[in-house]
């Protein structure tokens, strides 16, 4: 068990100022835990580490907080090791824990996300210095600069000084603008798993957004025995595609980096057609593209990146971020029996009705006349909010106002360089304030999945060790 107070961080102390640490990790989801795993792996290290996370368990976050067995990983077991240098680590954990004796079959399977969260916690607890980690059940609301380093302001009113801070804030849900909601609309967030399953079984539901959050919401409803109609409304009406069986070979596709965006798209389509003609699933082409994601993004000009975001990203996402075959089969079955309808169109306004239902007015894609959808409940599944300026009431919004960070390229995420050093308002990278994960998407694009997070966590750990000299400092 982690100690509730260590290094003098006694939550019951009279003083508002907690004793300082060397490294404060803001966020205890997958990203924060991956950083902690790296920092705690060295038994000779004396760095004092605190993780600040208000949830009741670490390694949950938006993705792994679900307790439902139907919510599966979107990547096979073989690709989900927490350690970049040990691809079989997660697989061995499942085998050792008795989850399966068929190691070969398990490698290509899609297990429950709750099991992956448990794996991350077990891996954290297995580190040599795990007992020295301080977990503060609190929330960071602002980070200033003090004489002794970064000054973290906590929601409890306490303050904590840290020589280095890692922003592992994870994914924030995108909000439906208040201007598009009229009256007391029955609205549930897709990531609020208990609230989704609490929707009455016979209720008609309208889900706004058709990405992975929508998939979670539909699975949650099905898990709860829902029998009502489900309508999905999104601008393009595109749903995530399914994974295929794993393929052999990893042909080099780095050549694409020398092409412009249009030529790249033509080349990828050609490769997909050739794969299908050769008896291979088209998905294998995207699997082979996987190691080149950041290179392909960085090799595009700013204008080409903008063009990608305007015209290509939605089609890229459904091919790149795929779902387990059994999940796809569930969605297909619901569509075939008429319980699930996908509408391509833009939501204009959702209006609460006197009987408690909601009327969603939308403009269908490629049409000029509006359409009205009636539902008993509305679910927001519009995905992840990556624009810092659209969340002024968060920690990142406070740091933006304070001048400690800048939005990333195209206004997406946080501007950063190297291992994740954050640029301040002057355009100067701060080596003591680092970020990883979804908030690096503008700079790196491929930055939200475990294969990227584990590499970033390793780089951040190496950076802060070098920065702080591997010895505890006076703070």
Task: Please characterize this protein's 3D structure.
This protein is α/β, with parallel strands linked by helices. The chain has 3 domains: 17-71 and 112-172 and 386-468, FAD/NAD(P)-binding domain (3-Layer(bba) Sandwich); 178-241 and 323-380, FAD/NAD(P)-binding domain; 254-320, no CATH class. It is 31% helix and 20% strand. The chain has helices at residues 30-39, 61-64, 89-96, 103-107, 113-125, 193-197, 212-223, 261-277, 283-289, 293-298, 302-320, 325-336, 395-402, 441-444, 450-468; strands at 17-26, 49-52, 134-136, 140-146, 149-154, 159-167, 181-182, 187-189, 205-208, 230-234, 340-352, 358-364, 371-375, 377-380, 416-417, 421-423, 429-435.
Summarize the structure.
This protein is α/β, with parallel strands linked by helices and about 475 residues long. It is built from 15 helices and 17 strands. The strands form 2 sheets. Strands 1, 2, 3, 4, 5, 6, 15, 16 and 17 form a 9-stranded mixed beta sheet that branches.
Secondary structure class reads alpha/beta
Overall mean confidence score, pLDDT: 92
Question: What is the helix tally?
Answer: 15
| Cα end-to-end separation | 26 Å
Describe the biggest sheet?
9 strands, mixed
Number of distinct beta strands: 17
Helix content: 25-40%
Relevant CATH superfamily of the largest domain? FAD/NAD(P)-binding domain
What name does the CATH topology of the largest domain carry?
FAD/NAD(P)-binding domain
Question: Per the principal axes of the C-alpha atoms, what is the gross shape?
Answer: globular
Unreliable sequence segments: 1-5, 7-14
CATH architecture of the largest domain: 3-Layer(bba) Sandwich
Give the radius of gyration. Answer: 23 Å
- Under CATH at level 1, the class of the largest domain stands as Alpha Beta
- Beta-strand residue percentage: 15-25%
